[in-house]
Sequence to fold (206 residues):
Amino acid sequence: MIQALNELVSLIHWIHAQGWSPATSTNYSMRDSDSSQQAYVSSSGVDKDNFALEHFILMDLNATQLEGYQHLKPSAETAIHLMLYQQTDCKVVVHTHSKADTLLSRLNVNDKQLILKDYELLKGLRNIKSHTEKTVVPIFENTQDIQALSTEMSGYLLQHSDCQGLLIESHGFYTWGRSVSEAKRHLEVFQFLLDCELELLKLKEC
Fold:
């Protein structure tokens, strides 16, 4: 488990280096390999350039922090991570605040979704075999009521089990995977495609 968590720490540092985790924003988690009902969730207020193993909090899927971790403050968005572990088969969840995902969530908020299609790189997502397929990224209204937001997301996922990414208006992006490497691959694919969509919008305005 320590090796896997160290891999996630390395990914967190890499995400920060891309500029997708400004200040102390973003949050991350990993399901505990010893118990499917527990997860390690990143603590709040830590600059991700300095994130280390001691900044993870072990908790059950009801958000109860286990003994030895009560001194740490969990991310405000912990409920979304725990919902994803209950709703999907993922093992790792990552949440970013890049310019592309933040701006596109604002520009497409009235549509309540962003449709990505006809890109070759879509094949980097799980279960997509051709550029002719598409993936739909829902956009949820931003709110400080994270429990209500996670419930809304859960309802969406019940109806759209093929969903692999979530946008929150004026906020950021969630994706996940069955391993650190799959979560990283999904994140790279989505961020590249979001960058492309944003550039296309700029070109259309010229």
In short: The beta strands are 27-31, 38-42, 56-60, 92-96, 113-117, 134-140, 165-168, 172-177. The two ends are 51 Å apart (CA to CA). The mean pLDDT is 94.
